[in-house]
Amino acid sequence: MSAGIVLSTRALAASLVDERSLPGHLRCSSCSRPVTNSFQTPHGCRLCQSCVDSLPATDKVRCPGKSDACKDPDEEIDICQSSCFPDIASRRELTKLKVFCPNKSEGCRAEFPWRQADAHLADCEFEKVKCEMCGEATLKRELDEHKSSACRRRLVNCDDCKIKVVAGAMDSEHKNLQSMSCCREFRDPCPHCREGNFNRQAFLSHLSQCPQKPTPCRFAHLGCDFVAPAAEMAAHCSEAADRHLQLIDAKLRVSSASAQHSTASGFPGAAAGGAGAAVDGASAVTGSGEAVSKEMKDLERRAMNIFSKFKGLQPNIATWALSTMSLEDFIKSFGGLQGFKTMLKNMDDKLRQMEAAERSGAGTTGASAASAAAASASSAEVSRLIEQMRAIELRFETLEQTSFDGCLTWKVLGFAARRREAKSGSPVSLFSPPFMSKRYGYMFRVRLFLNGQEGAEGSHVTIQLVLIQSEYEDVQDWPLVADVTFRLLHPRTRSDDVVAKATLSAQKPPAASDLSINASVTRFVRIDILEEKFVRNDSIYIETEVEPRPSEANRRGRRR
């Protein structure tokens, strides 16, 4: 089929110069419009491409045409996309007719045969094109003027510091005291109280004392968007109590299924049997193991306490709120989850050292063998409890930090220390908080190798998006294919951001500890460039956007 016979999507936007005199055989039998890119049915109807596209791919339905053949009981009038075939003669005849340029409304007065539409549009000054800097659509004839005076991504000089800045960021970032990339020379009154004349550094000092400083509601992490000076916050909390309870309920129900599952099948059993086994194992270690036995008893007490707290969690708003606050108080009492994990890890190390010492000693007596066996059992039990604490920590991260729109902005704190750790190989990588493609959707983490991986060690940072186990994976579409965009945010100008794209593919949900399903960019950014241009206040910012593609099961076939 020649290219001149198939009209492009853009060419289809043209209109006939004299549509009123269009002969009937060049009109669609269904919609009566010009039969563009026409098809014929087995019984002789002519349908335009749009009407054919609306038919099922293979399941036959009654022809939407209005010709006499469609009413003939002797004709086969059930059709589908695959039963229609291109009508070359009608296409050739229609594309010889004159049309107006699709840009007539923009001012173009050109007329030409329909088949020449694409050639005309390639040179038409009234055609809209995208500015390669900002992506905004503008007329081709106005593109140069747009780039020089209107494009929000063009570079302009700052009057204060004389540095070139992206125009769109001049007011919003460069000359904004509240922006991290504010001009050092720019001065302005406080935007909250309108007092003084501050530069950025002086403004930050003033902010701690500003009586009009906006303060987010204490329930902001749950979705309350109220912001006001601190003096107004007490009244808001009183007036919006019902709303805050609703937000607590909505947020906590996201993890209610997980908590119920843990209560039903994991934690109580561990509390009653597993923690007890840990104590039994520890008690079996004598002599030098007495200190460990004491620690194991303390572990049992703490583990029993935390398990009982989880037992109290119910998908009821009042109980949820009370249990959550009680659990938070409990966690604070021993320094938080990280402190508890550190205690467990230290205990695990001691047990392993004891086991190694027993094995390297005489080891032939019954007492030594029993001690080693007890130490081994205790070590295994502590390892199991550490894994359970990791699960608890993930649930809390999901509860407090998860975003539900497929986007994550991750602030990596303590960059210098994290970089030293990466170079030493302990740990090799960092993980972001979990985030989800949508509420009850796929769950991901960003994994960052600050010293590189797979041939990029020491030269480039490697970044991955890792698909992790989700409570709702049974109701997701599999296989999964998702487009991933990583963006390393420049602290001053967005035009200097480092952007990389990747594709994540997964045939089925991952196992609990499986990190192999990922989208990876091995050479994301050179380490020296990262350290020189992107670190601010010992932190870097990474933005990740995930967009799952429609599944094949939901995609209907099309015929062109």
UniProtKB/TrEMBL annotation:
* Pfam families in alphabetical order: TRAF-mep_MATH, zf-TRAF
Organism from which the protein derives: Macrostomum lignano
PANTHER family referenced in this protein's UniProt entry, alphabetically: TNF RECEPTOR ASSOCIATED FACTOR, TNF RECEPTOR-ASSOCIATED FACTOR 4
InterPro entries from the xrefs?
MATH/TRAF_dom (IPR002083), TNF_rcpt-assoc_TRAF_met (IPR012227), TRAF-like (IPR008974), TRAF1-6_MATH_dom (IPR049342), Znf_RING/FYVE/PHD (IPR013083), Znf_TRAF (IPR001293)
| Any single biological process term in GO | signal transduction
GO terms assigned for molecular function: zinc ion binding
GO cellular component, as recorded: cytoplasm
**KW Zinc (keyword) present:** yes
The places in or outside the cell where this protein is found are: Cytoplasm
Q: What is this protein called?
A: TNF receptor-associated factor 4
| Keywords (A to Z) from UniProt | Cytoplasm, Metal-binding, Repeat, Zinc, Zinc-finger
